[in-house]
Design goal:
The chain has 313 residues and is α/β, with parallel strands linked by helices. It contains 15 helices and 5 strands. α2 packs across α4 and α7 packs antiparallel against α15.
């Protein structure tokens, strides 16, 4: 699993730079220090992987065989979606739950439930549409990982017109891109950070996003995707952002709530978290301007004549 990266001990992790990590997506060798991190933080070893994958397959079949009328639908949904998938897909869920097969199964149920509860988010998403959205940073992805190996997914509200791009389509883009990013084992281990830049946030945005739309987002972040969400950073929000946050706060679990950082115009904590040289100038960094076309090609691959593939969960 080790790539051609310098060997760094745990005590040296403070000196990590983006160059100590691999590409933001796709299949590539995992740095040796990330392999060690997975062992330390996720209880991942070759022996544990093999044992828990086998156990998870047993749980999937057992839950299906023992299902009552009350839970038969969800047990069937999980079995249909995952029973025939390769080990890599199951490992993705196990990593998200620190190789606890029972918790991984619960996450699988959440994944299947999300597609049932929010079919408009996960159905009929076209790569060509996502490419157009990414080019405008809705959502955007930084082209390199941060010093901790995390991928930074962001959304800029400045210039966003909810009539031209409804929130549900925004969520379609987030889910599509997230699925692409999670193809990387390094991303599965190190996780993803979200940055919401509220520059240009208006009362029109407040009125355009209601509780239904917020639940699409909250459900994605809580128990529905095999992703380690390491932090949500809200920057440059106006005073009336409190109204929107007040709507969603009752639905947030304690763990997610603790990882939300509402910073306003005080960006010093933000720059302490993320090096300025990896942040584009749009996010107040010293890096080059965000090149949405280039990043979309990194995440989605080169543009093709036909990008109409279906991406339902």
């Amino acid at each position: 699993m080790a790539g051609t990266f310098r060997r760094i001990s745990v005590s040296q992790e403070a000196s990590f730079t983006p160059k100590d990590h691999g590409p933001i997506c796709g299949k590539h060798p995992i740095p040796i220090h990330t392999v060690k991190k997975a062992e330390r933080e996720l209880n991942e070893t070759p022996e544990r992987r093999q044992a828990e994958v086998a156990k998870l397959r047993e749980i999937i079949e057992k839950r299906f065989q023992e299902a009552t009328e009350e839970n038969k639908s969800e047990a069937t949904g999980v079995r249909t979606r995952f029973a025939s998938t390769g080990d890599a897909e199951l490992i993705k869920f196990l990593r998200a739950r620190k190789f606890d097969s029972e918790k991984a199964y619960q996450l699988m149920k959440g994944y299947v439930k999300y597609s049932i509860k929010h079919p408009d988010v996960v159905s009929d998403v076209k790569a060509k549409d996502v490419r157009q959205w990414m080019e405008k940073g809705r959502p955007g992805v930084l082209p390199t990982r941060d010093a901790q190996g995390r991928v930074i997914l962001f959304f800029r509200l400045d210039g966003w017109d909810p009539e031209d791009l409804p929130f549900t389509e925004v969520m379609q883009g987030f889910v599509y891109v997230l699925e692409k990013l999670l193809e990387s084992e390094e991303t599965q281990i190190n996780g993803v950070c979200l940055v919401e830049d509220f520059s240009g946030y208006t009362l029109n945005h407040v009125s355009a996003v209601g509780i239904t739309e917020y639940r699409q987002m909250i459900d994605m972040l809580q128990g529905s995707f095999p992703c380690r969400f390491k932090g949500i950073h809200c920057i440059r929000q106006p005073w009336f952002f409190a109204k929107a946050f007040g709507i969603i706060q009752p639905f947030l679990k304690a763990k997610l709530f603790e990882r939300i950082h509402v910073l306003g115009e005080d960006l010093e904590p933000f720059y302490n978290e993320f090096r300025k040289d990896i942040l584009p100038e749009e996010l107040g960094g010293s890096g080059p301007a965000y090149d949405g076309k280039a990043v979309a090609e990194i995440v989605l691959g080169p543009k093709t004549e036909d990008e109409d593939e279906d991406t339902a969960l």
